Amino acid sequence: MGRYDFTLYDLIKRNAVCHAGKPAWFEAETGTTVNFGQFRQQVDRLAAGLQRAGVRAGDRVGVVGKNSLAFFQLIGATAALGAIVLPVNWRLSAGEVAFNLNDGTPVMVFADEEFAPVVTSVRDQLPSVRHFVNLAGSGPLDPFDGLIGDDLFSGAPVDADAGLVIIHTAAVAGRPRGALLSHVNLLCASLHFNTCFGLTPGDVHLNLLPLFHVAGFFMAVAAFHAGALNVNMNRFNAAEAVQLIQSHHASVFFDFSPILGAILDEQANTGADISSLRAVMGLDAADTIERYQQVTGGTFYSMYGQTETSCLATLGRYDDRPGAAGRPILMGMVELVDDADQPVAVGQVGEITLTGPMVFKGYWNLDDDNAQTFRNGRHHTGDLGRFDEDGFLWYSGRKPEKELIKPGGENVYPAEVEAVILAHPAVKQTVVIGVPDPKWKEGIKAVCVLELGQTLTAEALIEFVGQRIARYKKPQVVEFVASLPEKDGSIDREAVKSQYGG
């Protein structure tokens, strides 16, 4: 650490001075409120406990849990040590949880009482883990409070460019990839959020996205950075969200469809006052965005980004160019390039690339993938877009080799789902595609050819998939066909989309 370094733990210390007695976190589930000064003390005591347990700079600490004060404290304590937090999507299957944890080789794993059985079931598959600890509630793991004592935390200097968090992206080519993000990535993203929203200590962030998601993690820190209050939900529920908006005058949150629509429906049914919502950012349908603005008078901010770009690459007010994803962020150079990595003209579609301090450090232990994504000095997103004459980005889908389906903000790669479907003995061929969905914006459809003489129902195949990978990845629709269109001896995916993607 040098004179120019500033880390997440430095931010925690800074806010304990600037906002010591001001509420930092409200836990909706328990009614607990913690101020910024108390939060720093709790982080220090937990960091000292992690030190006693043998956690050192660069070690990974796995977490399988819903949003909670303990989870947020653990993020801060891990950062204080220069270790790396490894949050795992709790919607994954036990096998997927084991894969993501093993990929990061953590020395400790924390789990909610709800997910302790999952972690326990794969315990023998996690040879790097020395301690298994309850995150929230009781359970079969070591007690969380056992780590917290009266020791004084004495941290070693931490480089601002050191790794802070590994967030696994969707399973391109059949396996998830751990995106490593640094303190600089996080705090740069935080400043972008704060600048866009104009966040102040008077704001209240409704923390409803999971902390294993880059938007949930980084938005919670952005609110903390501004001295605003995080009102935490351990899991989204529209009725509870509306009640919390009204009672705590929540002013901002990050949205993925169908969250905002569900909140507006609940408000319409109850007549609750949600006029405090002045700013919402994310991805949603035009009619939902316009309805929100009419009901609250607030502003919706459109954006484009990935985990690999610290959540953001472009952003802007929805009303400035409805349908666009905003303009490039203040500290990011977004360029659109062709297959030869040459810039494309205004109005032409090209691959979205990014340079700047928002670009992640790389995929964990995947040198070949890093060489590919960082070729010619840019991060290549695999997404396509075009710029209009005023510099607004219009998203144009994924490159064919990185086809992606996004139901409700989650990333699902067809290749992963297809591999599971093809493990069913009755299925000969399949293509998984994205289709329009009124609730999730995009749904998952499997088009399948059965083996000769085999029979199978759509319901049985959907359940087969849901038992093997996260249930949000299973198809909502299955269509059985006699054959799939081919081109040059291979399945023609574009023709499948054209024929069956309505």
TrEMBL record:
<dbReference type="InterPro" id="IPR042099">
    <property type="entry name" value="ANL_N_sf"/>
</dbReference>
<dbReference type="InterPro" id="IPR045851">
    <property type="entry name" value="AMP-bd_C_sf"/>
</dbReference>
<dbReference type="InterPro" id="IPR000873">
    <property type="entry name" value="AMP-dep_synth/lig_dom"/>
</dbReference>
<dbReference type="GO" id="GO:0006631">
    <property type="term" value="P:fatty acid metabolic process"/>
</dbReference>
<dbReference type="GO" id="GO:0031956">
    <property type="term" value="F:medium-chain fatty acid-CoA ligase activity"/>
</dbReference>
<dbReference type="Pfam" id="PF13193">
    <property type="entry name" value="AMP-binding_C"/>
</dbReference>
<feature type="domain" description="AMP-dependent synthetase/ligase">
    <location>
        <begin position="14"/>
        <end position="364"/>
    </location>
</feature>
<dbReference type="InterPro" id="IPR025110">
    <property type="entry name" value="AMP-bd_C"/>
</dbReference>
<dbReference type="Pfam" id="PF00501">
    <property type="entry name" value="AMP-binding"/>
</dbReference>
<feature type="domain" description="AMP-binding enzyme C-terminal">
    <location>
        <begin position="416"/>
        <end position="486"/>
    </location>
</feature>
<protein>
    <submittedName>
        <fullName>Acyl-CoA synthetase</fullName>
    </submittedName>
</protein>
